[in-house]
């Protein structure tokens, strides 16, 4: 029983992080129709900056158990780069997807080097803060409490986004803009500001994802690029532009990876893409493709 | 589009720049003049770029990283008793040595440590009068992918005219550069890289390529020490990076340990890719395997990450562990998540070895002062290549009576023995690095926040590395192990 719960929890943890990054992708694609490859770099930035901020704060006397909030704050603070990058992407909104992929990939490469320039080549981590909350025994499985915090945070954010989209005026405008941009503009909505906000929100989702994952791991070169590959699988499976798709896709990828590692490790990477192929064959638009929320 | 409120407010007439441009259009007589001015400006710009470009090249060769040219006539006295006059038949110009240093990716911290050690060596050598009176100048290029690194190596040798190339961490890159060294007849002294596969194909009979220690050596050492420290082990599970090094170390470890403990059962190993950072699923699988010992050959940032995630679920409460190479990232192995009692390997260099030479004391002190850190094994390998090269040049000079050719230096390198940071090291007849490997049992010392080892076991490559480059590894293991008397 403990083993099953172990697998359940580790799959859920992977899915939580993947969801955050994929949600950022989906939000931006849904509203602005840009496939923002740079979410991977924002994720990496969130990790680096999260580690720096938390290590500094704890060094200055922040009680260790509060470091979780330090990470969330780090992720939110990085939202300031949202308007900057959005301004860079503005010329290509209506251009061919190829330009979008090229330009966002160029941003990935640039941010990769900028990150290295600022933080150097040594891996960064938050040391042993990960273990501060201890572990809990869940039906025979030892689960780090921190993992549960992350899963809870991702779940809260998922619910929050859902409510934002379905219950608020802003969410209504968002969904309308995703559906029919010209109509929204002709109704007097400042789509320019809308895009800046949406893009920054997408950035913050990814940076929070990176910040939340850093205590468990360490910054690695090209961690951003690697994540893009997984995030891509998530949104293809879930359907481009759909939040629900991000959630389901993240769970699928998270669990498929966990299960394959436990039962037949050699096919770990292969199996994710087998699922992608199957989904594309059966439902080319993804499981929830075509929706806007 | 209707959307753009801001741009709709200012038209060209209301913008002063626009006014200027508009008015310019009506002065036809001046258009020709403007074009000439523009053309002159462009020509001047191109000319100045060209001049600056040429000038930069000259500046660059004088100000390459690390060591600058110093005035040898400043009367620096050599401290080793040799003549203070410049040796005969030796060119005046600085001696250029090319470095191929990994700067990005998982190998970057390793490359950085190595680079720092060679810079330290060069500063001391130059302060002491250089090599046979010639000041050493380091020209640094980046080691990245095989293709680009080969190009940079060609540039170093053909354009920059370096006398030797030191460097390389990655196996794939080193295999690609070895044929170039042979083609260009320039000594290439590798810091790391090269496992078993591909060596015979790419370097069948190298004259100029000098390799590092065989990568499997630390797995062999770990197996010998496993038999000593964990003799009651029944079942072993492995995890290693999914490339040649990971697979080779796991296979070698199994082969050697089976000779000491034939009844041990080995569970199928896990091979996450190099650079993976999420091991929760792997750790669960390891817990489910029923093993009482874990083998791990991670050597980069993934090692502390794995240990941290393992500690979070108390993996090592019921399991011993052997980390063959994690000593490479020793300062990130914090005591909070690295338990005592594990076997930990440090490759050819342990920073806190019980008896330190004066050389090592100085290096540790300078490194701590400059970087606030403790060096790892690549610093030692890199230092060895530099000091071995110098010794070979001097030996070849003694024989030739004049500045030696590359071929003479390469010949002198074979069998050369010098003092490195970790102790005496040498190149054997098959042009491989030989020295001691350091491994031990982890302890929590008050002096450091990270785990260290006590006792420190030191095994010589003459015992744990196959005797020649073309010996079959598994056959040699089968015939030579178990070896008596390697460890007490």
Total number of beta strands of chain A: 2
Q: Which structural category do the helix and sheet elements of chain B fall into?
A: alpha/beta
Helix content of chain B: 40-55%
Overall spatial form of chain A: globular
Architecture blueprint of SSEs:
The complex is a heterodimer of chains A (293) and B (488).
Chain A: H1 2-32, H2 39-59, H3 67-77, H4 81-89, H5 97-119, E1 135-138, E2 141-144, H6 145-167, H7 169-179, H8 181-186, H9 191-213, H10 223-238, H11 243-263, H12 268-282
Antiparallel strand pairs in A: 1-2
Helix pairs in contact in A: 1-6, 1-7, 1-9, 1-10, 1-11, 2-3, 2-5, 2-9, 2-10, 3-9, 4-9, 6-7, 10-11, 10-12, 11-12
Chain B: H1 5-9, H2 16-25, H3 28-62, E1 95-102, H4 108-127, E2 136-143, H5 146-159, E3 164-167, H6 171-184, E4 188-190, H7 199-202, E5 209-210, H8 217-229, E6 235-239, H9 244-260, E7 265-266, H10 280-288, E8 293-296, H11 302-312, E9 320-323, E10 343-345, H12 358-371, H13 377-400, H14 406-413, E11 417-420, E12 423-427, E13 433-434, E14 436-443, E15 452-460, H15 461-464, H16 473-480
Parallel strand pairs in B: 1-2, 1-3, 3-4, 4-5, 6-7, 6-8, 8-9, 9-10
Antiparallel strand pairs in B: 10-14, 11-12, 12-13, 14-15
